[in-house]
Amino acid sequence: MSLVDVIIVGIGGMGSAAAWQLARRGQKVLGLEQFDIPHAYGSSHGISRIIRLPYYEDPAYVPLLHRAFELWREAQAASGRELLVTTGSIDAGPEDDDLIQGALASARLHHLAHEVLTGAEVNARFPGYRLPASHRAILQPQGGLIASERAIVAHVQMAQALGAEIHARERVLHWAADASGEGVTVVTDKARYRAGRLILTAGAWMGELTANLAPLAVPERQVLAWLQPLRPEWFTPERFPVFNLQVEEGRYYGFPVYEVPGFKFGRYHHRNESGTPAALLREPDAADESLLREFSQRYFPAGSGATMALRSCIFTNTPDEHFILDHHPDHPQVVLASPCSGHGYKFCSVIGEILAELATGDGSTRFDIDFLRLGRPGLVKVS
Ligand SMILES: Cc1cc2nc3c(=O)[nH]c(=O)nc-3n(C[C@H](O)[C@H](O)[C@H](O)COP(=O)(O)OP(=O)(O)OC[C@H]3O[C@@H](n4cnc5c(N)ncnc54)[C@H](O)[C@@H]3O)c2cc1C
To answer: How far is the CA of 181 from the centre of ligand 1 (A)?
Structure first.
C-alpha cells in the first residue's frame, strides 16, 4: 500500500491546481482522476472560463481574485503556455439589478479601475454588442478569460515535474478517515492507498463521495454554444470583452472567439435541470440550441451565424451559490472543496493555494474564507 502526504480525489480545475501548490511545498502528492486529463465530462471543459474582478456576488471574493490573477500569471510564466487572456470584462443589465449594484459596490470598495457606461455607449465602442440602450454596464479592464483545459494540463505537468504522482482513469470508490484525526485510507477500482491528509475536489461528484454534502452541492446541466460570427472582426479578444448580462430572458455570459471558431456564450441555470452527472451530460438538442440562439440574435446579432459547437457541462450549486471550502466537520485531516455554483473556475489558482494550506501544517490559511466555510448561515448545518 502506497503512503503519501496528501491524496487529491478529482484532478479537474481545482485538484490540478492543488497538486501543483502542494508539490511546490515539497509534499508527496497522489492525484486520482476517474476520467482522462483533461476530459469533457465534468465542469471545466469547453476551452475557456471568464475571470472578472468587480465581483457582484460578494466583495469578499475580491482579495481572493487579486491573488488568483497573480497565480495565473505565475503559472503562465512557469508553464510557458497562454493561460490568461485579457479582454476587459463587462457586467451589464438594468441599473437597479443586483448584477450592476453588486459589481459597482465591489469596484468602489476595492478601488478597482472601471468605467460606467450606458448600453448605447457599449454598443458604439464594441460593435459586436447590441445591448438595450438604457442598460448600465461596468467595464473593467483587467477581466478576460482563462484557458481552462490548458490550465489543467499545465498544473498537472508542473506538479509532476516536482514529483507528484497523478493517475487518470482510476476511480475512487470510497475513503475512510482514521479516528485519530491523523490519516486516511482511499480505495479505488485499482488499488488501496494511505495518506496523512485527503483533499476532495470531485466537482459534480462531491455528494457521492461525502453523503453529507449531497444536499449542499447539487449538479445542474448547462449548455454552451459557439456560433460563427457574421462579423468576425468584432468578436476578437481585442474588440470583444467577456460579459455577464442580465436581460429579461435571464442571465447570460459570453466570450470572444478563442480556439473554437465561434462566439461562445451560455445561460446561467440553462433549463433548470438537476440530476446525476451522467444524466445531465446528455447531448445538446434542438431546444437547447434555440433557447441560446434566441438570446444571441437579440443581443449579439452579428455573432449569430452558423452553429460551430454545442457542449453540455455541469454546475454544482450550493444553496447560497457561494463555494464550500473547509475541513470535513468530523475529520480534520480531510479537506472539502466545492467551488462552483457556476463561477468557480477563475479561482482555481488561488483555491489550489488555499487547499494546500488547509491540508498541511496546522490546517490554517492566511486567506479570509469564513464566508465559504460550512458553518455559515447560508448553508444548512452539516453534521
Ligand atoms: C458551462 C459552464 C460555464 C462556466 N463558466 C465559468 C466562468 O466563465 N468563470 C468561472 O470562474 N467559472 C465558470 N464555471 C464554473 C467552473 O467551471 C467550475 O467552478 C469549475 O470547473 C469547478 O472545478 P472542479 O475542479 O470543482 O470540477 P471539475 O473540473 O469537474 O473536477 C472534478 C473532478 O473530479 C473527478 N472525480 C469525481 N469523482 C471522482 C472519483 N470518485 N474518483 C476520481 N475522480 C473523481 C471528476 O472526474 C473531475 O475531473 C462554469 C461552469 C460551467 C459548467
So the answer is: 28
